[in-house]
Design a protein that fits this description.
By secondary structure, this protein is mainly alpha-helical. It has 10 helices and 4 strands; from the N terminus they run ααββααβααβαααα. The chain is globular.
Length: 196
């Protein structure tokens, strides 16, 4: 249903990407899913085609910060409103992800925190979770740090794992997931919806 509802947005995003220099509309990147099974996560391409995050080469870091020169003009818009994340509905349709669940990471970071991910990856990863809401402005936060990757692995990722672990351990499924989805839409739209 999500794929059908957002079909016009998919079309507009594809046109924007093509008008902004052409190249592929989607990029895919390996992430680690449930039970440590790897899968390819889909996004709208928001970076130049020769970047690692564009899925075509290994010439850039896997984490993106605000102001990254690899980001295209259309990519800035797609990323601002999280439209670049919509193709993950394909992953949901394929059973690799769910709407709500721990955000899937790349193998490099999963291996750094493997004991913690042993628990997290007992469930399917998701498009959003408490950590996604808490770190919605992650790119801006990391951009202010010269040692941004060290900051990500030493401070941001451990906190993400903590929040995701709390979700996995105490979720009340339907109600909790609904509230998280509402909070996600509110954060994207600049609102102030709170889970009371």
């Amino acid at each position: 249903m999500g794929l059908v509802v957002f079909l016009p947005v998919f079309f507009m995003a594809a046109v924007m990407i093509k008008l902004d220099g052409g190249g592929t509309v989607f990029f895919r990147q390996e992430r680690i899913g449930r039970d440590f099974m790897p899968f390819y996560l889909y996004k709208f391409r928001s970076m130049r085609g020769n970047s690692a995050a564009g899925g075509l080469a290994e010439d850039g870091p896997p984490v993106t910060v605000r102001g990254d020169r690899r980001i295209t003009r259309s990519g800035r818009i797609l990323r601002k409103y999280k439209i670049d994340e919509l193709p993950q509905l394909i992953n949901v349709f394929r059973g690799e992800m769910s709407f709500v669940g721990p955000r899937p990471e790349i193998r490099k970071y999963v291996e750094l925190f493997r004991p913690e991910y042993e628990r997290l990856l007992k469930v399917r990863p998701g498009i959003t979770d408490p950590a996604s809401i808490r770190f919605a402005d992650e790119e801006t936060v990391l951009a202010s740090r010269p040692d941004w990757e060290e900051c990500y692995t030493a401070r941001v990722l451990p906190e993400k794992i903590r929040l995701s672990s709390e979700y996995v351990g105490s979720r009340k499924k339907v109600l909790t997931d609904f509230m998280l989805i509402m909070r996600t839409f509110s954060r994207i739209g600049g609102g102030n919806f709170k889970d009371r």
